[in-house]
Amino acid sequence: MNMVNLKINNIDVSVPAGSTILQAAKAANINIPTLCYLKEINEIGACRICVVEVKGARSLVAACVYPVNEGMEVFTASPRVMKARRMTLELLLSNHNRRCLSCVRSGSCELQALCNEYGVENDGKYDGAKTESEIDASAAHMYRDNSKCILCRRCVAVCEKNQAVSVIGSNERGFATHIGSPFEALLDETSCVSCGQCIVNCPTGALSEKDSTEAVWAALTDDSKHVIVQTAPAVRTAIGEEFGNPIGTDCEGKMVAALRRLGFDGVYDTDIAADLTIIEEANELVERIQNGGKLPMITSCSPGWIKFCEYNFPDLLDNLSTCKSPQQMFGALAKTWYAQKKGINPKDIFVVSAMPCTAKKFEMGRDNEAAAGMPDIDAVITTRELARMIKRAGISFNELADEKFDMPLGASTGAGTIFGATGGVMEAALRTAVETITGKPLENLEFTEVRGMEGMKEASYTVGGLTVKVAVVSGLANAKELMKKVREGKADYHFIEVMACPGGCINGGGQPIQPASVRNFEDIRAKRASVLYNIDKNMPLRKSHENPVLKEAYDEYFEKPGSHKAHEALHTTYVKRSRFGTL
Amino acid sequence: MSKKSTVPFRGTKEQEAQLRELIDKYRNVDGPLMPVLQGAQEIYGYLPIEVQKIISEELDISLEHIYGVVTFYAQFSLAPKGEYQIAVCLGTACYVKGSGGILDKIKEIIGVEVGECSPDGKFSLDATRCIGACGLAPVMTINDEVFGRLTVNEIPDILAKYVNK
To answer: A127 Cβ partners below 8 Å, 6+ apart?
Structure first.
């Protein structure tokens, strides 16, 4: 590799050619602040907070995009640099809603942290005109408050490049510039898929999830309700970050203990519903293959993906598995079999979902998601909202001893757990499908070809004389490319897994927000995913169809996979939508 | 909230055919959006949502991306031009002589904002930079007719003539 030698703050540094000053400084353990920069996604050098002095250069340069040269001398903290950064912050604040105290991002706001670091006061040094804006609360899952927007365009970049959704962008110019939708439409009128990737990439409080914690608090104090909670696999991989734990800390036991202390009548696991999804979905796949049904069959767990498909590929809805997502399966299971078993009127059961996902807030309100004649799910809170509840309840999360999920709906297998990472659903489905087709116990349970953080993976397996071709994609831009091939008949897969968020649910729009200073230098997705694969490895049961509680549920209620009763409760329908939303 | 034009879209089949022909010409060219938008505005006189949607579908560029470009450049218009195009000069000389008040009075009478067209298609309103008639400040034009040394009080009578034309 070609190396380049330079000096940063008089320290010798040697980095690969093509590195930026930002990367070179990082290698020398010198942090340069950034705001607009997101590695490979938003490299526009616009915010000017990362400016540094380069000896011989006419003006300060943006370290995030400026490449290193042999013999270069860089100063990252000179008085001139400090003065420029401070003024940039003061100017940003001059057009900023500075009500930080109750802001949802207070404490995790990148602008606030920098102002604090640079001693920039909240005194409105350059106060003048302010850009006018209104809060957009139209979407089911989020708020947009442009009075807190700093126009870094990170949300725009992830929406367009990672997700190929592109319903937000910068409108108008100069002082009137603002982030908005086409024709100033409300988000709800566009083809937004509710994935929430804009939220986890926003440096400030301009974008935030709709908070549903009040509804949960109210239910918890209502004695007439049997309030139960399910937690998606990915929540346990990341909630620890909200309490200062390193990225990739498994907090399942502490999370369960905390939920019990919040007062839930049952602390359950979405993993059981993931197992149920696999049983139904593997059955559907085998049926489609054997009966000449529509192929490739595509997973339906990710509500952001489902909505994306409805908007952009309405002609391919028959390729989607009709299985409800695990969240919805859980609610259906709780309000049918579980209600019957417990002798509780399903009307009195309040199901809370703790999810890594904002699209789940939209999904709970979809049509045909009501197995017992009422919505399967009553409230969805994100990992972030759950952490807020735990903090507000005064629970010392890190001090809690590990506890186990309640039975019966806390029974799970390793297959259900790995749903939270890209490739997990595929691997879980393969474990069950292979045994279903061959009728023999599977020896090697690990389908490593579909693991890992690449956006597009494919593999083929020979099972009982049949070659099964599969593909796994995450990030909707990757899904779009693959779906174009499916549309053109150029993708001869049997089964495709799609997750809306890059890397899967572990990197979902409802997960704890890591600042760009972390995201730019480490793969938080791989660290979080490793938690799930470790749990799976150590589980006594690792195949969905071995889940003992589900065997009971089928015996007592659903009869068999794909039965009429299973279809009524556990499957759903999709709607054709326009690529322009309702615009 | 939505900024869709208040004037009903009156695009014809012929215009759409012209637009599609234009898109085909630029489809495989790098950076097709600007020439297509310029051409589309020549065809329709403005760039309403109906036109932007066709461009979005055909070039596989998101509607927001297109809208962002259209609202960035002053040369593009989201509203059609009226039968009578009113332009009030907000150049320095006209402005200090009170063209701001003239503009407000016009807005009040015809009920549209700058850059818009009245729903009946009769009047559109623009605020311009200096048109070089500073000696007559404050100045406005209606189509090719120039009105100079205006006072706010004269505005109702001038517009009334056009309303009844």
So the answer is: A94
Total count of residues recorded for chain A = 583
Report pLDDT for A327: 98
Check whether B1 has a pLDDT greater than 50.
Answer: no
Does a structural domain hold residue B8? no
CB A455, CB A478: distance < 8 Å: yes
A135 → chain B, closest CA residue? B1
Domain span at B26: 13-72
Q: A410 Cβ partners below 8 Å, 6+ apart?
A: A267, A268, A269, A272, A404
Show which of residues 127-166 on chain A sit within 8 Å of chain B, judged by CB atoms.
Answer: 134, 160, 166
Residues 30-49 of B with CB under 8 A from A: 49
Q: What is the CATH number of the domain that holds B137?
A: 3.40.30.10
CB atoms closer than 10 angstroms to residue A12 = 9
Question: For position B53, what pLDDT does the model report?
Answer: 98
Per CB-CB distance under 8 Å, the chain B contacts of A134 are: 1
Q: Check whether residue B103 and residue B129 sit in a common domain.
A: yes
User: Does an H or E element contain A190, and which?
Assistant: none
Q: Residue A338: CA atoms inside 13 Å, Cβ hemisphere, count?
A: 30
Residue B138: inside a domain: yes
CA-nearest residue to A166 within chain B is: B62
Q: Output the pTM of the full model.
A: 0.93
Record: contact A172-B72, CB cut-off 8 A: yes
Residue ranges of domains in chain A: 3-77, 93-209, 224-570
Residues B92, B22 share a domain: no
pLDDT given for residue A374 in this prediction: 97
Q: What pLDDT was estimated at residue B3?
A: 63
Question: According to CATH, what is the number of the domain A3-77?
Answer: 3.10.20.740
What is the tens place of the pLDDT at every residue in B85-128? 999 999 999 999 999 999 999 999 999 999 889 888 899 999 99
Q: Which chain A residues are closer than 8 Å to B1 by Cβ?
A: 134, 184-186
Where are any strands of DSSP class E within B7-156? 84-89, 123-128, 140-142, 145-147
Q: For residue B57, which residues of chain A lie inside 8 Å, CB to CB?
A: 579
CA distance A520 to chain B (A): 26
Digit-coded pLDDT (tens) for A226-263 = 999 999 999 999 999 999 999 999 999 999 999 999 99
Q: What is the phi/psi pair of residue A67, to 5°?
A: -75, 150
Confidence bin at B5 (pLDDT 50/70/90):
low
| Structural domains counted in chain B | 2
Which of A107-111, A126-130, A360-364, B80-84 is least confident? A126-130
Q: What is the pLDDT of residues A168-184, one digit of tens each?
A: 999 999 999 999 999 99
**DSSP bridge partners of A581:** none
Proportion of chain B in helix, strand, coil states, percent, rounded to 5: 50, 10, 40
For A263-294, b where at least 16 C-beta lie within 10 A, e where not — what string?
A: ebbbbbbbbbbbbbbbbbbbbbbbebbeeeee
Residue with tokens 């490979």: A40
Q: Tell me the CATH class for A93-209.
A: alpha beta
Nearest chain B residue to A170 by CA: give it.
B68
Q: Which of A163, A165, A167, A183 to mutate to test the interface with B (most CBs of B within 10 A)?
A: A183
The whole-angstrom distance between residue A574's C-alpha and the CA centroid of its chain comes to 22
B7 — pLDDT class (breaks 50, 70, 90): confident
CATH superfamily for domain A224-570: Fe-only Hydrogenase (Larger Subunit); Chain L, domain 3 (3.40.950.10)
Q: What is the pLDDT of residues A200-235, one digit of tens each?
A: 999 999 999 999 999 999 999 999 999 999 999 999
Cβ–Cβ pairs < 8 A, chains A and B: 55
